[in-house]
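explain this:
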Amino acid sequence: MSLFPKNMGGIDRVLRFIVGAALIWFAALGPATGYNWIGWIGVIPVVTALLGTCPAYTLLGLSTCPATARRA
């Protein structure tokens, strides 16, 4: 058993990456609104998408990974 088990499916990972990248773009290159710092929250979905694991899913016992669903 690994420290960070894979619990995210492909669609979940792609959507998280897109949303995270859009938030980071807003923080770094978007129009200066005074709220650009909120965009740096996008780092979290990008990292979870790249790792394929979501700590919140682990705590809640959820999984969108088809391989995990077959084993259960």
Remarks:
- Helices lie at 10-29, 43-51, 55-60, 66-71.
- Residues 19-63 form one domain.
